[in-house]
User: What shape does this take?
Amino acid sequence: MEKKKPIFYIVSQEVLPDVLKKTVVVKDLLKRGEEKTIHEATRKVGISRSAFYKYKDHIFPFYEASRERIVTFSFILDHTTGVLSNLLNNIATTGGNILTINQDIPLQGIANVSISIETAQMKVDIENLIENMKTINGVKRVEIIGQS
Assistant: This one.
């Protein structure tokens, strides 16, 4: 019998049942060493160990799904000297390995750029990388358009 390939969705945490959110919290407590055992961590957040075991392999934060993958971003940048260079330096500083850069011809002072990066060696998660990139002067928009 052939095993079905799982299908994944990106879902806002606001619509998730509490047990799923608490499962992520338990995993985080264990990962950071704040709690030593599953029993202690589940008791601290208020779920049963059986609920944790039921869901632990089926829910994880988006940034964990992006680890050791290729993520493609779309940017809208001001067509100003140094903006793209600052963006690339920011990615490199976090340990992102830049694989491709595609830029359209700038029109009306705006450049559309897509960048694919390998995330395996990154020192920050994707969410923090996005927030860092948004703070760069001249970066107007950042979106994830693909991941493999």
